[in-house]
Design a protein that fits this description.
Helix content is 71%, strand content 8%. It is of the alpha+beta class. Keywords: Coiled coil.
Length: 219
């Protein structure tokens, strides 16, 4: 009796095909809740059960994956708001980190910041001094024009149009100068406040560095 032998490679191919057939034929089951809220396991998933969420099981009852319930519009809106808030916090943290790095690059001590503040203030204070001088000059000019006009009127004369126009021009110039002076004075307060923020932050960073240095020496 002659026995036929199959090549080893052919036998491997047959085994692989059988295994593939078993894998393809494997059936998935679905676990979900019916309209009464009772858990149900079925080989078919009703469309109405999809929004409520379900589990996909193997034939042995092992959970393969979990599909969560679909979120309501309110839940989606809340999630979106939370994501925006989280992103805003991340952006704020990144911006603060960039400001801190810039601060540490520009200054090596609080004294450096104070010196920079004084340089910035000195420039503004010079402009303020000039503007105050211009205000005094404008006021004096207006008073002179008004005195001339008063003398003319007391003499029974009529103030000419040129004098009236000069007074009006001087008043507009005074108003403009006073406005510029007020803006510069506000600018001084703003510069002081901004540099104070830098000073406070620099001190905070120094405290953090010192704290880390202390902790590292204690380890």
């Amino acid at each position: 009796m002659i026995k036929s032998r199959l090549p080893l490679s052919y036998l491997v191919l047959i085994v692989a095909c059988l295994g593939t057939k078993d894998a393809v034929g494997a059936k998935e089951l679905y676990k979900y809740k019916d309209a009464s809220g009772i858990p149900v396991i079925n080989d078919r998933l009703p469309p109405e059960a999809v929004p409520l969420g379900y589990e996909v099981l193997s034939e042995d009852g092992v959970v393969i994956r979990v599909v969560p319930p679909q979120m309501t519009e309110e839940e989606l809106a809340l999630q979106s708001a939370q994501e925006r808030e989280a992103q805003a916090k991340r952006d704020a943290a990144a911006a603060q980190k960039a400001r801190d790095e810039s601060l540490l690059m520009r200054y090596s001590s609080v004294a450096d910041i104070e010196a920079a503040r004084e340089r910035a203030l000195q420039s503004i204070r010079i402009r303020v001094s000039i503007l105050r001088s211009n205000v005094r000059s404008a006021v004096q000019q207006i008073e002179n024009y008004q005195a001339q006009a008063a003398n003319i009127e007391r003499s029974g004369g009529k103030v000419d149009e040129a004098t009236s126009e000069a007074i009006e021009i001087a008043r507009r110039r005074l108003a403009s100068t006073q406005k510029a002076l007020a803006e510069r004075e506000i600018e001084i307060d703003k510069v002081i406040a901004e540099y104070q923020v830098d000073i406070d932050r620099f001190k905070h960073l120094e405290d953090q560095v010192e704290m880390r240095r202390t902790l590292s020496t204690q380890e």
